[in-house]
């Protein structure tokens, strides 16, 4: 193993220990704020109906929802591993899953920047500076955008023609994915932005270097399997949402349910809110209302699916986070 370097890079110094734990504490604060809003809406529109809907679910059904979310996380974790190995990072599949899942603890940091903690762990365990593995974050996010844009396009073609907002959101997501996975195009945009701003040349030089390194992931041998993993993962969560609506007695076609879930998730992410919290919930309730479902169904459906997807991921991340920190520090000390 190559000798590890001190944690002195901008990526790491941007997340000192005290601030990192403040970012972790942001999760329960956001959860309480959004939960208060949803509970208030449920009370204002019929608390009894909301409780009645939630009471329809048994423990087995809840476990199925959690299991489908776990399928999504594991498939995307495998995708992360493929990208890491493509960059010649000496990580095992267990290390990659530990890094990927542990990063979920920071999902509700602004812009999900806290997930850059994964780069700290990789740097400690593989040596070198975090900038070496920084393209992982870009390609991982771009792969999610591409997969979700394709799913939304499929949903539009099948049964979401009435949701006029779906088309522009899908187009934006796909456009962003194309830009991030086209090194020359991304490098050109970074250069044009630097010329417009005229400041921080070293920062933009690092961005250009990261953009050029994305050429590692543009071959069909890499894009096809990783895109497939992303598609299967996100469809698994969309399927969970369809099951949930069916258990609540809502007769919603499969692709429409998947489209509503994907559109709400994308809309929440595009707002820039940490983890899409607030925006995704509002979008999901609004989209269900367009289908004719009142708060008595849309609110409990939104609460359950968000708990079994986003907040389940954060809980997993919080459980794995200390282990990932301990393992990476131990490897760093022994190298």
UniProtKB/TrEMBL annotation:
The chain crosses the membrane at residues 24-45, 57-75, 162-181, 214-236, 303-324. NCBIfam families: flippase-like domain. It comes from Halocynthiibacter styelae. The keyword Glycosyltransferase does not apply. It is a multi-pass membrane protein. It is found in: Cell membrane. Keywords: Cell membrane, Membrane, Transmembrane, Transmembrane helix. The lineage of its organism: Bacteria, Pseudomonadati, Pseudomonadota, Alphaproteobacteria, Rhodobacterales. The keyword Membrane applies. GO terms for cellular component: plasma membrane. InterPro entries: L-PG_synthase/AglD. Its main location: membrane. It holds the Pfam family LPG_synthase_TM. This is Flippase-like domain-containing protein.
């Amino acid at each position: 193993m190559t000798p590890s370097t001190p944690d002195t890079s901008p990526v790491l110094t941007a997340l000192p220990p005290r601030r990192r734990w403040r970012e972790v504490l942001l999760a329960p604060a956001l959860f309480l704020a959004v939960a208060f809003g949803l509970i208030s809406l449920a009370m204002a529109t019929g608390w009894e109906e909301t409780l009645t809907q939630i009471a329809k679910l048994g423990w087995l059904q809840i476990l199925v929802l959690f299991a489908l979310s776990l399928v999504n996380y594991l498939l995307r974790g495998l995708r992360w591993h493929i990208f890491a190995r493509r960059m010649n990072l000496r990580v095992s599949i267990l290390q990659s899953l530990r890094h990927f899942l542990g990063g979920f603890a920071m999902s509700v940091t602004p812009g999900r920047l806290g997930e850059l903690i994964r780069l700290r762990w990789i740097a400690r365990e593989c040596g070198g500076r975090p900038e070496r593995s920084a393209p992982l974050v870009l390609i991982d996010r771009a792969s999610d955008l591409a997969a979700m844009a394709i799913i939304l396009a499929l949903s539009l073609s099948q049964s979401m023609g009435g949701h006029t907002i779906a088309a522009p959101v899908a187009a934006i997501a796909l456009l962003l994915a194309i830009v991030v996975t086209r090194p020359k195009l991304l490098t050109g945009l970074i250069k044009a932005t630097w010329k417009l701003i005229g400041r921080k040349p070293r920062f933009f030089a690092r961005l250009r270097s990261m953009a050029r390194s994305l050429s590692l992931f543009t071959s069909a041998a890499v894009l096809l399997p990783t895109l497939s993993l992303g598609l299967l993962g996100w469809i698994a969560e969309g399927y969970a949402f369809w099951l949930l609506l069916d258990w609540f007695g809502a007769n919603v076609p499969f692709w429409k349910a998947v489209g509503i879930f994907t559109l709400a998730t994308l809309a929440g992410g595009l707002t820039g809110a940490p983890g899409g919290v607030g925006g995704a919930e509002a979008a999901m309730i609004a989209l269900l209302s367009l289908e004719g479902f009142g708060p008595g169904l849309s609110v409990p459906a939104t609460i359950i699916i968000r708990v079994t997807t986003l907040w389940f991921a954060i809980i997993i991340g919080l459980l794995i986070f200390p282990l990932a920190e301990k393992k990476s520090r131990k490897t760093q000390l022994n190298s």
